[in-house]
## 1
Amino acid sequence: MAGKSAKPEATTIFDFASRKKVEGLHDKEQYWLWKCFAEDPLSACGQVPAAGAEGEAGESGSAPAISGGLWYLAMSGNSSVRQFVAMNPQATAECLTYLSTDSSPVVRHFVGGNPSCPVDVLERLAGDKSTPVRRSVAANPGTPAESLRRLGSDACSAVRQKVAENPNAPPQALAALAGDGEVLVRHKAAAHQGTPPEVLSVLACDPSAIVRRAVAANCSAPEEALARLINDEELGVRQAAAGNGRAPEEALKDLLFEGDIYVRRRLASNESTHVETLNQLARDRDPFVRYLVTTNEHRSPALLADLSRDEDVLIRRAVARSEDASFEALRVLTCDPDMLVRLWLARNENAPAAILEMLARDPCLSVRQAVADNPSASAAAMEILCADPDIYIRRSVATGGPTSPDILRALAGDKDHMVRCLVAANVNTPSDALQYLSFDESADIRRRIAGNPAASPRTLHDLATDPSDEVRAAVARNPFSPFAALKLLSRDADPYIRLLVARSKHALPDMLLALADDHDPWVRRAARRQLPAG
């Protein structure tokens, strides 16, 4: 029968010649649309295969099937279907080349924005008569430098703006765009980290405030330009300059008595701010300014002694989490009326042994449990907790003796809670018994399993989504936790859980990169320390 082959991998371009002559092709078109959108059929080809992997993809049959299906859809008479193919990153170079000559400018627009678009096609589309097409090419990171330079002088300001936003825009193009007549184009050039420093110095004197603000926030801006922008008449410019890590220390001192609290907040969080300036900001009337000073890695440890008595509870919690607080500052916090202050102090692995010994007698169960879980707790603290009136605390410091696997399996179904807890903590318990106990209603039992090196990867992955933060923390500490579990925990809502992942020696680089931009300063700091230099 003439028409398209039922096997897309065996289909050639010539099969499409009789496309409209075959009945039922509309149903096949719907089939391939479903095939490309459906999750399960694409599970084996969620990424474009790497070079040299064609043989493996061909053996599975999935990648050629989708490729053939996209080719089929590329011949559709429906523009919307061709647009779907043009934007699909799995479309082959030949398919995109074919669609780049489509009569519909919308289809060519999606081809120009496709990350898989061939370089020669991008070069040709850079001269397309349609403005949206040129705009998509200007925004594509794969567009060659020469094409970007040409598009930088395009008659349409929207195209030039996309060139200025392109992360791979060449410095020459950015320098030319810095003198553009459109404010938004100059603004994008001023915000681009690839713009040459001498060009940023010129843009620092731009008549537009949004351009100067972009320069003030640019980490590539030269110090002399930032020193000038710190005293800018526009408030937004001063705010941006106050938070720039490249701003000179002496210039930042001029913002100390700035009336705007947002300028002072940026100044307090800036790691380039001089220690003396931070000392004065520690007495600021705005509590969030004082909090940001507390979390600033370059502030003086001596400040924490005064901040440990601050009236704002968030500041005292920040002091409790600090790694360099003095003994006196932490001793004050052991009697803090806020339970979370004492809880964060009990979790602090840098807390002195004597502080943890004081917290081992805390009236709050969660605080004492945190001391028991703290790897820095001394033998004296554990001795105190061994006699704790709460049975869960005593189990935290107890160790299970060697028992046969069969007996442990039997005890895993025991009615007594203490027996099940001891089984959950025993490293000799077989993994199937631990899997059974992982569904126990007691969070203390699940926490024991989460910390047990004998627990299977599946069990630990399931416990990574446990409602109890203590269970999830135990999974994060477990050196045998699978990467999938750590991945889940790296996105946990609790900053303490994310902190444990950031400190883990088993966290993958992509987890650490994400945590390096975490909103919590301690998580960011721990992740950046784990990342390799450079």
Note: The chain has 38 helices and no strands.
## 2
Amino acid sequence: MLVKKLICRIFVVAVVMAASTMHLRAQEKLDSMRLVVATMPDDTAKLACYDYICYYIYNVDSAGKYTKLMVDLAQKLNEQRYLALAYGYRARYFLWSAKYSEALDAGVESLNIWDRLDDKFNIALSNMNLAIILTFQGQFESASRYYHISLDEFRETGDSSRISQVLQNLANMNTFVRFYQNAIEYYEQALAIDSLSNNAYGLIADHTGLARVYVNKFKRRRRDSIAEGYLQQAKTHLDTAYYLALPLPNIMEMQQLHNYMALVYMEMAENLTGKEMKAALDSCESHCYALLKLRNDYNLKINRSGIMTMLGRAQLRRGNMDKAWQYLNQAWELENTEHPRKEIKKELLMAFRQYYELKGDYRKANHYIEELVYMLMENSNDEVAARVAQSKSKVEFEHKMRQRALEEYEHELQYKAQAERQRLLLIVIISGLVIITVVILLSSLRRKKLNLQLKHQNVMLDEKNYQLSAAKEELQSQNEQLDRANKSITDSIIYAKHIQEAVIPTPELMQLIFGDCLILLRPCNIVSGDFFWAACVGRYKVLAVADCTGHGVPGALMSMLGASMLNDIISNSDMNSTELQASDVLNKLRLKLIRALRQDLEQTESSTFDGMDVAFVLIDTERHKLQYSGAFRPLVIIRNDELSILEPNRMPIGTYVGKQASFTNHIVDIEPGDTIYAYSDGFTDQFCNTDSFEKFGRRRLYSMLLDNYKKPFDEQHTIFNDTFEKWRRNNPEGVVTEQTDDVLLVGIRV
């Protein structure tokens, strides 16, 4: 296996070195041109050299220098075509430097010159470049309009490569705003065009873009059954792009490909085991090392923290905790200097959280969960600031467009003035015909009067049509605002779901603690108010199953608060103490929750009684004892086909009406083969779709558990989920009843 891994890395590095050699040859030609142009006189030949340098140069500082020199020389020689090209290169330099306002000014100057020269191709190209700048400013509606103007103009010229490029840019913009289906359609149109013209660079961009779309779709649907298909589609497109890019000297494309290949293999390794997992991790690390070599060779000090995070995740998956710690520490140091995208920092925080969970340090793991929450709050503030900046940029752009329209209007007025002078001269020449004209006018006076009346009626009709059109546009604008607001809220809830999933134990952690186990979790509204929590400290295995007040976002917030408090209580408890009781944990949890929600203040009629129902279990693996304490949630134990129920206290975790008493601590002996279940009330309270609206109830639940407890837990998961769905369709028409609450059922076997 070590030899295979070494061969894989040598192959990737060899490919990168070959591509680097071809790029270095192109760089040598560019360096020679820069030496020659310094000694040339100021003429059009020197302008042509500047054009070559500005077209191929990628260094930002050098691009700023040579684009300025080209603008100055083109203005001096009054070469309008070269001046338009120079402003276009200048706009690209400002875009690289994130100076979007200056980039917009230069792009508009270039477009104005091409308009005066009536150069259709470069007008289309300038419109596309303006759309790219507007996209970086976040003005997506304006950018889309300019992209489609450019697309129509390129279709008139018949330039297939440029049509493909515009379609790719439209797809990139739709990917950024998460309109993934639109992005896929644009990429597929570009792919069809590039396939017909055999455009290798275009095909690489098309397949890389499609892979990026499917990777983003996978990240948003990571735990769904269809997510694996998105990952396979992304890998297929990346393999094709990688095969096409190998013989080409395009370093930027190779960086993208190595980055996405590493990401895809990492995600595949998360769902694999054994040799297949090791092979995926080997491929991931090989692409990471190749990407690092490229960036070191060309001194590209960007996103290295993301690469180190990926290598750290790979070592965590292998179980190499020391190496994982080294890579994650390097990523953290680079993050403080590079300040990468929020998405990269999120991955780093989640990797640290996983590291400390595997080490059993839940307090530090909880710290990184809190960092994730703070980052989410900062993202919300950043989005508000970005929207303000976008609005300001939009106003400045519209002001420039109005100035351009005003200049065109003044030019039109000059043209009309000249035409008026010519008309007056013509009137003088034909003055002899005035008498005949008057006679004709008198004879048609009545007809003109009727025409005026008809014209007036048409004006009134046009005014009404205009009002109707304005009302329609206003209604359409309001609908679009509602759609955007709804999409923003839904995206926020989905992001909250990822954070909640980071808080609750992963299936791997549950299997590490309890072995084979059952986890049936069905949120009612994306995020769940039901949660489970587990830990293994000392000789104790700990399990909590909780049902928080409400569901959706309020329930999810309460669940994260409960998990955090359980982490704190267990971390600060002496787990080797023989006096440790499950009821003590619930008493402490109730006290913490009452203080956190300020329920210890004076209660009034309007006060709320938010809290949670919990079944809490401590398993002493040395003494073979089980402690249970419950707040409204019972515990089911099945042994030798006999079902026993440990009843909870009829009081919640939180404030309630009545005297506050200590929770009861149940202690029972356990034997190998005992099966233990804890559940929320979502399963038993689910209605069927009949006239009686009957609930599923405890009796049916206990019968279902007793009938299936000996089966493997994965088979139980399928049976219980199907039984729940069948109950919701329990009517002659087969109509599905709406899910009434979050559903959680957890089972373990001794």
Note: The longest strand covers residues 540-548.
## 3
Amino acid sequence: MEKIEHLDNQDSSEPITTADAVSKTMESATGVSKLYLIKVLIKLIPILIHLRRDRREWVKREGRNIDTKKYIKHAERTLATFIALGPSYIKLGQWLSTRTDVLPQPYLEVLAKLQDDVPPSDFSLVQETIEKEIGKIDQVFDKFDKKAKSGASLGQVYLASYKGRDVIIKASRPHIEKTVSRDILVLKSILPLATRFIDPNLRYSVEAMFSQFVETISEEMDYRIEARNLKTIRRNLSHDPMVLIPELISEITSRHVLSMEYIPGTKITDIATLNAMGLDRERIVSKVHRIFFKMLLKDSIFHADPHPGNISVTSDGRIILYDFGMVGRIDDDTRLKLVRLYLGLIEKDPVRAVNVLIDLGTLEPSVNRYIVEKALEFSIRSLHGQQVDRMEVKALIDLTNKTMSKFPFRLPKNLALYMRMSSILEGIYHHHKVKFQFVKVLADILAEEGLLRDAYIEETKDYFKRLANGIEASIGLAPFLRSYMEADLRTKEMSSRRQWLTSISIIGSGLFIGSAIFIQYNLYLGIAGLLASAGTFIATLAVARRKR
């Protein structure tokens, strides 16, 4: 997969107009029809302009006293534009709908409709794909409902009967690879322009998200990869009786057709039905978090798209997972750092949490640690169910605005899917509005899976690493300390008649420094002090020469 380079090398000291940026975009879009690119730009530029204004206002007012109707109107225009532009933009909208750091809340709520409410393509076009890869529909299936059960960004879902079993058939949208390849070229060309409409401190995170987006959408178009993901996660969670994952039907699965067992359930956000079934929603929310964070912290792969359309609940409270096209993988080193981060949250240690965030690359080492640690302290109190003083929070916000021109949070590419998963799960929790302590779930997972031992071992290693770095820095100072001590020894061996010269020199130095500071408050007294200190030094040198 081609790497996405850093896309904003323009010197910030040289202003660039939208027209200049559009011109550069046109030049970079090789392999794409200029007419098509112009059409896309005409649709997207008004959206970017509205988003820039809305986000600035949202941040400035902290989401309060804003024209909500205006925000929703702009967000709905964005939604309609993404749907009109096709699959890649629908998928991009799905990614953006979880990014609270990029979009104001009204935008997130409107774009969330893209998660499970995408208009399906005409069945005749999809039928061609199915029959080309697995055979004639009337010969393969006992029954096939041609009305799509749901539409997704890259495919659509149908209910059928196969060898006496109810099955789900997911089929790719027509000519999906060609469409996505063209769209990716256009988006790569537009990205430098688009990043000029957002805060500079967000550019790194947005570019990392886009890089991960390109890789993920390429994998999602091949249903054979999703089939492998499904089998792996199903095997990893097979020991949990409260989780249901459909069985893959391999013989009628191909590159563009995915077939699996049909397990019906109630959508996890359908509060009325869940209440009518007498289910404990607090327990359901807790269970969902346990499932996903256990995958993240224990297994080699985790489901990265837990939006409400992909999670259902059975009548007896078991959790059903669907759609395994978008999965995340993190290496063991990153996983252990995340465990250490969560351990810091559990043990109410913001200093340790900031150390891990720096190690993960999400914070610059030069960050104002006091502000970040204080912000984390507030978050930790809230996580543990403690009340946070509003005046204290306001004071921190004011301090942050005065001392930092941009928030130093960065989102490395390898954490983009993890953040997506976490954001969507948080949305499910807020939708249910139940009592829920995330730290308790985390503590249980770390204890049950034996991860506490690994975390403490890593914490010990990190402690000794920092200690070794400190010792190394001290060793570096050794030659200077030695020189100082030797000089001090020579001084002590000098004749006692010279000791008074040192005292007078110190007095003269103090007079000089004090005058230099005082001069900004009283010019004349400052100058007088400087002249006095100069006279002291001259007199001292004259006496020293006479006594040699």
Note: Residues 451-493 form the longest helix (43 residues).
